[in-house]
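Colleagues,

For the teaching module next term, I've prepared a clean inverse folding example: a structure given as tokens, and then the sequence designed for it. I'd like students to try predicting residues themselves before seeing the answer, so please don't circulate the second half yet.
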């Protein structure tokens, strides 16, 4: 997948089939759009293109209201990796500023979709709007298509278990610790990508050594406190384990100073410290427990390990 962070760098995209959007989570609805992009691109010997924005438009346009407390399912690094796995050919990341927000829908089509990307076909998701004051939509594009020499297609709303899939619903499930529901909407495991660092001294002392993972964006949504069944990929190897999230902690996270994330792998290897890893969340096992002593802690964590080890994942 080619990544463009500057519109002036875009070149050599053949017969571009384009869509736009934030694509936070790269959920099952997003994948439907990407799959359709790739199918249409293949039909015309072209390439799929996603235009996305960073930071999230809501954070820029409504910093004191709708964007103030907005947390995202994925960091930019995570989103890039998920889009790569989804088979996207080209990713265009536009720096979203207040100045860019003034771009009209017509200018967006002319200046970016046509003059920069040379779009042959534009695909939009259900109920998608773009441009200043959300003036652009499927009908707007359809009216321009003939004169501008491109085709346009709208993909209908996608459902899962009779519920509309949206990044908002996934965020709600994650806020509630409902990992399995979030994963069903996503059509993949919720992930964290970051550098591994030394974990809890206390866990090391009781014989269950841990590592932590550094979250490099303050907008990243972190699930609530608790113990989670996870798997971890590092150096192209997968390991099963458990992860603990707790608050009132200042040791690990520069951008999330009140959160500790400890990972215990069932095949622990200290040489992973300093490496970048991907954590895959499978299930929330229990709430946080306040241990009365180290032995109580060791007993509970051993039970957690046995319970998680019995899960099929």
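(Answer key — instructors only)
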């Amino acid at each position: 997948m080619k990544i463009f962070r500057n519109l002036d760098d875009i070149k050599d995209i053949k017969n571009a089939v384009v869509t736009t959007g934030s694509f936070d989570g790269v959920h099952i609805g997003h994948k439907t759009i990407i799959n359709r992009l790739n199918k249409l691109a293949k039909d015309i010997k072209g390439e799929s293109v996603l235009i996305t924005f960073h930071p999230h438009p809501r954070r820029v346009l409504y910093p004191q209201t709708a964007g103030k407390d907005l947390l995202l399912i994925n960091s930019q690094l995570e989103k890039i990796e998920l889009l790569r796995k989804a088979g996207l050919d080209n990713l265009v990341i536009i720096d979203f500023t207040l100045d860019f927000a003034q771009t009209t829908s017509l200018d967006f089509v002319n200046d970016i979709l046509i003059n920069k990307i040379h779009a042959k076909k534009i695909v939009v998701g259900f109920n998608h709007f773009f441009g200043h004051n959300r003036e652009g939509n499927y009908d707007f594009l359809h009216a321009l298509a003939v004169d501008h020499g491109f085709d346009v297609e709208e993909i209908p709303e996608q459902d899962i278990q009779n519920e509309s899939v949206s990044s908002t619903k996934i965020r709600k499930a994650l806020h509630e610790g409902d990992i399995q529901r979030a994963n069903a909407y996503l059509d993949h495991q919720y992930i964290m990508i970051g550098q591994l660092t030394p974990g809890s001294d206390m866990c090391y002392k009781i014989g269950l050594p841990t590592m932590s993972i550094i979250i490099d964006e303050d907008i990243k949504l972190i699930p609530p406190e608790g113990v989670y069944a996870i798997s971890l990929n590092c150096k192209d190897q997968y390991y099963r384990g458990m992860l603990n999230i707790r608050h009132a902690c200042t040791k690990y996270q520069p951008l999330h100073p009140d959160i500790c994330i400890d990972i215990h792998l069932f095949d622990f290897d200290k040489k992973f410290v300093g490496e970048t890893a991907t954590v895959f969340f499978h299930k929330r096992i229990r709430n946080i427990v306040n241990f009365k002593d180290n032995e109580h802690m060791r007993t509970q964590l051993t039970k957690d390990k046995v319970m998680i080890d019995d899960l099929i994942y």
